[in-house]
Design goal:
Elements: H1 10-18, E1 34-39, H2 45-53, H3 67-75, E2 88-90, E3 107-113, H4 116-125, H5 129-140, H6 146-155, H7 162-174, H8 176-183, E4 189-193, H9 194-199, H10 201-212, H11 237-246, H12 248-254
Parallel strand pairs: 1-2, 1-3, 3-4
Helix pairs in contact: 4-7, 4-11, 5-7, 7-11
């Protein structure tokens, strides 16, 4: 049941919860053996979280139009929810608060790594301004060089071109894999490359289900579409060049953390 001041949007969540509450995962331990799906935004985490939620042995908790926001409200204690079984929560929204994972032990986390050409294209062409700005502000500003740091301090988000905001946001968020691996062993963290999952779903998806302790059925593969791999080809040359220069070196380094290939 929603509380009396229902939070129905991410800007409202940011203002009412993120900016005021110490722990966004304060209720996670109330849902033992939870599955968490995370990664950089626009990386296919929603698809995977929905697929897992609809799988045998899982309970669907969704109550609003945005299931990740539903998860955020439940896990932060903003919504009263009586546990009814095993849950899959999408937690990409944590952003700079990812160290909260380390204070809990009753979950398994699947982190989705996706090539930056697809992610940045989606950020620029299929994402609301607020979402990109929030991710950039919370995670990426330490990566700015001196020139852009001064411009950001003077003009805010307008001081950094949107393409650069997306690239820096990608680098900052995906690089959290390093700290996650340092604190979570392979029994609790599985890192999956989105492109490989889509291209080799019949081989990789069963391993994800095994890691999660879920029964696997071949029909689970139907939710994964090959068409998602090619949309970034519509990007212009300037966008492709920036991603290749700024993001691809980071992506290539992080591939060493992939659990399934």
């Amino acid at each position: 049941m929603l509380n009396s001041k229902a939070i129905k949007t991410w800007p409202r969540f940011a203002k009412s919860v993120r900016s005021k509450q110490d722990q966004l995962l304060s209720r996670l331990d109330d849902y033992p053996d939870s599955i968490l799906i995370a990664g950089c935004q626009r990386s296919g985490t929603t698809m995977l979280a929905r697929l897992i939620t609809r799988s045998e042995g899982m309970v669907n908790y969704w109550f609003g139009p945005d299931d990740e926001l539903d998860a955020a409200l439940i896990l932060s204690g903003q919504v009263e929810h009586e546990p009814r079984g095993r849950y899959c929560f999408q937690t990409t929204y944590l952003n700079e608060r990812y160290p909260e994972y380390f204070g809990h032990k009753t979950f398994r986390l699947v982190w989705v790594l996706r090539n930056p050409h697809s992610v940045v294209y989606s950020m620029l062409h299929h994402w609301r301004r607020f979402a990109l700005n929030e991710l950039f502000s919370s995670c990426a500003t330490p990566l700015l060089d001196a020139r852009y740091q001064r411009r950001f301090e003077m003009f805010g988000h307008w001081g950094v071109p949107r393409l650069w905001r997306a690239c820096y946001a990608y680098n900052a968020k995906t690089s959290q894999i390093r700290q996650l691996r340092a604190h979570l062993d392979e029994s609790r963290l599985q890192v999956v490359d989105y492109d490989e999952l889509v291209k080799n779903k019949a081989r990789i998806l069963p391993h994800i289900y095994e890691f999660l302790g879920l029964p696997y059925k071949n029909e689970n593969e139907q939710a994964i579409k090959l068409s998602s791999l090619t949309k970034f080809r519509r990007a212009g040359g300037r966008e492709r060049d920036a991603v290749e220069h700024l993001c691809m070196p980071v992506y290539r380094q992080l591939l060493e953390f992939i659990t399934l290939a």
